[in-house]
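Repro:
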Amino acid sequence: MLKANKRKMKLSGWLKENHAEEYKSHTKIQGFIFFYEVFSEMDGELADFSDMKGDKHGIVFETVWADYTMEWEYFDQAIEVCHYPGPRLLNEERARKCAWIVEKRSEEEVLELMRQMNLWKAKKRSMIRSRQMIDLNGADFDDKDRQLIRRLEMEYETQTGKREEA
């Protein structure tokens, strides 16, 4: 039985359909979903930080991690069904931006970006002490995180020549 919610499954399905190489990397799926949620927060929309965990490597959404690693075949099929039919539950331009961020970086670079975030740093000591995954809190998203995300957004806009419509 899959554990990821519809939103995270829809995001995974979008990535599979539009950026199949990144979909093959669990790290890049996690990065894609993470950046999508952070940009949602930055845009004043509801962000889904549920099941967000951290360990010494970076940030993961535990339900997606479990489904992707332990229920691969079922997950891979279910995200296609979840991605279609029905109305889109995601912002296409935001998804393209987040896919670009992970596509242009190695897995280690994606992890390093996540480790730069206060969302991760706020619990770093606990992660190191326990050597386990620790619950992360969206409330730890701070101004330095916002600055980093805006730099990534400017990089995207500069490299692609795209601007989000107001």
